[in-house]
Amino acid sequence: MKKKIPAFFTGALLFMLFPYLITILINGLETGLLNRPLDVEAFLPGIVSKQISSDCELETVKSQAVIARSNLYRKIREEKDIAGVLKVLRESLDLSEDYWCIPDEIYEQAVKETEGQVLFYEGELKLVPYHEISSGQTRSGAEVFHDDSYSYLKSVDSSADKQSADYLNSTYIPQQQMPQELEVSGRDSSGYVVSLLADDHALEGEAFRQGMRLSSANFTIQKVGDKYRFLCKGRGHGLGFSQYGGNEMAKAGSTYQEILETYFPLMEIEQVSDTYWV
Question: With 0-12 CB in 10 A as exposed, 13-18 as middle and 19+ as buried, what is 202?
Fold first, then answer.
């Protein structure tokens, strides 16, 4: 549940930010932000609130906070300009709805207690993916991307995901919306479909999953009457951090460091000294 900023706090905040707000009103949000340092930590609670439920354990949310910070810092380094960073923030925060709201306090606590912590692989900022529920085994980055530069994303056991009420999902699609012939032609080592043949045309598994709005690319296909039934295991792409699996670890007493070490065994949490990266 989101909390509105108390009136006295809002008044004090407006007083302190008055010159900054005038700049925004005259020149727009992006120009206003260009005239002050970008404090990543200030935006992270809102970003994390869009990525994971507040019903999760604190240690799980802290894991997501480190992931969110790592991905945002990587974007900042790649974009090399504030405008690029602002684009990411707008997409993540939806300022039109949440600009004057504080997310559930668990997000603020998670960000505060992991302040400045990011995941590195061999001293570099890398993509740190996450998903809701795996099929019981997360996926290998090298297999998914067909690129050894993603080999730092190892396939790991996440058997606890099988306990989720949302582990299995069925999607029915009318026959007329499907090709005449459809078959799975390849799976990765975790069971996710990597390729299909549709009337002799090759399709990529994850792209097909998203196009058909299936919960996961780990699926089987069955003809049922005049429909095709896709029985899917898990939710999401299956790469990296499984939020459900991580939350089960947190319930059992694992810290966020232990959770991240489990899902990213080749990556290390490091403390960065400066949160103003632009």
Answer: exposed
| Cα distance between the two ends of the chain | 32
pLDDT of residue 78: 81
Annotate 66-102 with b (16+ C-beta within 10 A) or e (fewer): bbbbbbbbbbbeeeeebeebbebbeebbeeeeeeeeb
Residues in the chain with pLDDT values less than 50: 1-37, 95-96, 98-100, 275-276, 278
Strand order in the sheet with 193-198: 182-187, 193-198, 201-204
Burial of 116 (0-12, 13-18, 19+ CB in 10 A): middle
pLDDT of residue 84: 63
Say if residues 194 and 205 touch (Cβ distance below 8 Å): yes
Neighbours of 261 (CB within 10 A): 15
Residue 264 CB-density burial (10 A; 0-12 exposed, 13-18 middle, 19+ buried): buried
CA 165, 110, 262, 120 dihedral sign is positive
pTM (2 decimals)? 0.81
Over residues 86-144, the pLDDT tens digits come to 666 666 566 445 444 566 899 999 999 999 999 999 999 999 999 999 999 999 999 99
Task: Please give the pLDDT value at position 51.
Answer: 93
Burial class of residue 215 in the structure, from the number of CB atoms within 10 Å of its CB (0-12 exposed, 13-18 middle, 19+ buried):
buried
Matching residue, tokens 């999607």: 171
> Which token pair is 213?
């709005």
Q: How far is Cα 217 from Cα 237, in angstroms, rounded to an integer?
A: 7
